Amino acid sequence: MDNVTTYPLLIEEIGLLLQQGREKAAYSVNTILVQTYWQIGKHIVTFEQKGNEKAEYGSQLFNRLSTDLTTAYGKGFSRSNLLYMRKIYLIFQNSETLSHLLTWSHYFEILKAENELEIMFYSKQAEKERWSVRELKRQMKSMLFHRLALSKDKEGILKLAGKGHEIQSPEDLIKDPFVLEFLQIPESHQYLETELEQKIIENLQHFLLELGKGFAFIARQYRMSIGGRHFHVDLLFYHRILKCFVLIDLKRGEIDHQDIGQMNLYLNYFKKEEATDGDNEPVGILLGAYDNHILVEYATASITNQILLSKYQLYLPDKTTLTNELNKLLEE
User: Fold this and answer.
1) Would you say residue 215 lies in a domain?
2) Which structural domain range is residue 156 located in?
3) Where do the YhcG PDDEXK nuclease domain residues begin and end (predicted)?
4) How would you write the chain as a 3-class SS string?
5) pLDDT 10s digits, 20-59
6) Is residue 328 a part of any domain in this protein?
7) Number of domains in the chain
């Protein structure tokens, strides 16, 4: 073969090998580090259980450990790090349940959650959706677990914590509310629907993260020609898990019966004109600032298409309120 034509291929192959090798090395280092910190946590708990902690050191144990370990072995032994090493052992007492895809930085954030159900959920979900640490922080700050859990019964909440959020039906696509704080639209600002749509397009990566796993963006203002008239759906996606088109219309204010009728029209069009073999029936999502529950109930009563309604808000949810609501549900 001509060396001139094969040399670039050689460079490309070597580059690919280096990338794979570095990824494997990082993967191995990460796995070893998490397991090592788990082992350290185990030793700390064993020491406490023997009574030595209360008898000799009291509440100063972690301060003393931090000082002595840092002096002997260098960085990585802050008091907070040591507390989370202890916590990772207490929560994940079987080390085999720790994910090899999550770094210590992931676990450090996850362990900040206040209860075990949250910790287990974010561990599963971060692994499933391959969240970066930054994405994980955002999802925890937006109270994703609480928003999903409040739409379920107690058994559903326990399942959510144990397996993560599984997309098995169109209803699983909905969060109530969707949190769009990344758009940075002031709550008092009198924005138009076109402005909301433009902001979403400009922040599409964040919006996809909020929508969840499986969404693939297709188009904005997707045009449909029906009966000699042109209609446009604000945002069009395809969901690769449910294998269906997902149409999203944005409403600045209240969702009303006319919005539902229009979405029903769009879905009928997509079933007949856009869906191909292997596609399931399309799903419509109306995303508004609020809705009239009674009006919506009557408007959707005889509709067979999948039309889902949810609220959005432009600010982060109130943590105390959501926590109290979730605790009440768990107590019941």
Assistant:
1) yes
2) 111-166+317-332
3) 172-326
4) CCHHHHHHHHHHHHHHHHHHHHHHHHHHHHHHHHHHHHHHHHHHHHHHHCCHHHHHHHHHHHHHHHHHHHHHHCCCCCHHHHHHHHHHHHHCCCHHHCCCCCCHHHHHHHCCCCCHHHHHHHHHHHHHCCCCHHHHHHHHHCCHHHHHHCCCCHHHHHHHHHHCCCCCCHHHHCCCCEECHHHCCCCCCCCCHHHHHHHHHHCHHHHHHHHCCCEEEEEEEEEEEECCEEEEEEEEEEECCCCEEEEEEEEEEEECHHHHHHHHHHHHHHHHHHCCCCCCCCEEEEEEEEECHHHHHHHHCCCCCEEEEEEEECCCCCHHHHHHHHHHHHHC
5) 888 777 777 888 889 999 999 999 888 888 765 554 445 6
6) yes
7) 3
